[in-house]
Sequence to fold (737 residues):
Amino acid sequence: MAELCAVVGVGQTKHAACRADVSIAGLVREAVDRALADANITIADVDAIVIGKAPDSLEGVAMPELWLADALAAHGKPVFRVHTAGSVGGSTAIVAAQHVMAGIHGTVLTIGFEKQSDGNAMWALSVPIPFGMPVHAGAGGYFSPIVRGYIGRSGAPKHIGAMVAVKDRTNACKNPYAHLHEPDWTLEKALETPMLWDPIRFIETCPSSDGAMALVLMSEERADKHAGRKAWVHATAMRSEPTAFAGREQVSPVAGEMCAADLWRKAGIKNPAEEIDVVEMYVPFAWFEPMWLENLGFAPRNEGWRWVEDGVTEMGGSLPVNPSGGVLSSNPIGASGMLRFGEAAMQVMGKAGEHQIDGAKKAVGHAYGGGSQFFAMWLVSSTKP
Amino acid sequence: MALRDIAIVGTAQRPSEVNSTFTSVEILLPVIQQLLDKVGIERSEIGFWCHGSCDYMSGQPFSFVSAVDAIGAWPPIIESHVEADGALALYEAWVKIQTGEVDVALVFSNGKTTSGPIDQILSLQTDPYMVAPLKPGFDALAALQARACLEAGVVTERQMAEVAARSRRDARNNAVAFTKGNESVDELLAMPYTLNPLRAHDCATPVDGCNAVVLAAGDVARRLAERPAWIRGIDHRIDTQRLGARSMIESSSAAIAAQKAGVAKDRIDVAELHAPYTHQELLLRNAMGLSESTHINPSGGALVANPAMAAGLARFAEAAESIFAGSADRVLAHCTSGPMLQQNLVCVMEGE
Fold:
């Protein structure tokens, strides 16, 4: 039986298109310093560091955790690097939590970051691969046929994506750390934004951001003695499947369904839509909100878009999704998954400020990556399991 | 919480080659199948898969994604990837099994080291503002370290040549090794410098390769192997990377990791050290307190075959095989990462 693990500190940077005021190390330290301050500990109290980011080519530093050992004052400590594509922020937090759950370390610092302004994310993600065929321009080019597949099979009206985007951009205005603060969006204006990858419009697309997220995790023994609010990890789950094979379900990947089912089983959740108070979901393109509502088992198949239309996922709805503004408002790729996990923790710790969902007790952090094939999720709560 | 008993129960390695035209999937698939056959286990019995590789070596982002095709990720599996040597992937798998969530894990790594200028690629690990723009070269950084060690009297050129001579000789008995030789120490010392004070034989042989091991807990391990290689201690530590801020003549991270892994608790029969340069083997032996009675790198080590990102896991495979064969009872496997032995992982394994 594994030990319990709690989030006792959360810290993130101000996310922006270009954080020219800080180096990569400075960006990471900004999040780390805030997480340590939030936990009211110092770096000397940390036993091990687990760090994740998406492809190293985005900044041009190979395995940057080696160089960052200095900025993290990690000398003489374990530094562990995770890289699982877009889900990396989530899987990094899970690997960090497992160090605690396994009883190996009592206090673990985990970090996800990306300084995308140092490179060009779109073309870094669509290089002509020497050993395979280049098939798309940017992630939007990859995902747009899948979105079209969802619209075709569910009969969703064309404005659903724009509705999600307006909701998330509006929510982001309550989050001081969000990259985009754009309070004046209306559905009408959103539908006038240019089509980038049909059916994905400009507003339905995530920005490219510089940013970092850091969490301080503690064992039950240490967390019990630690003053301050905590988010207890009730369950973690990861699943992967191949990018492509004949007949693969790409709109609602089996790996995602299995991952969610595993999460609900481990956390003893029978009816996710009833029992979960808030979800921080990985939605880099707006249409993925209704798609993931179905994939995670919240909404019935082909009904996710109706929940969006009915306002279920708004901050005042019965299942708020991305009160932080989500990936659609801040997307430092390597941090995005951990931002979801950390924002979920902030909700149950009651530390989400203006975008707090009142009385949130159980929250889910969700991340995915690759061609909708790598999934990482955790469920955190204000009380112990 | 008491730690679970976890052991390596099987290993497989692809013989080293250079300028391989195969993809990572093509080189991994047969190795993984061979390992599953050897251990006598079905894919469905693997609870967790973990992969180590480096995007920069394949020149593409997310290069590891296609590797899930080599392991057969259908129906979906629980899987993770580290941007590091497979030895770190093994560490993650060990952590995963320790949580009690799974009992069996398959760890694999691959490195097509010869498909690009590895000396320049690895030096992109350095400070991107102050060091990397100077394009220092990984070998040149090691040469600076070797020079510091020679001048401090921590190593001698003869000792370095002795390491090379022994490694090249031992490699003759290893089907996976690439460089083999039977030169005397004096013959090696007569060779010209390539990067003073390093000679060609002081530096690892870059090769393309891949490998895989199966880890299992408790009774499952006893069922899968006649003589499992039980992990008695495993730990990894990092040093500063800043040139000039760290002593070049010792490895404090290796010393801490060795102490945490319990190296000194008993005699070590075989130590497989991931030392890409001859002087680094000598530094590691000092840091870990290994005595003359320990057989260092019977495989020939990284000097004779260094598939970057797989060479550390290869040390685990070689060390575990010596337990399986009964030729050793207590062994050490080591992996290094970063310039000048910056990060070190040490593991002690025993037969029952």
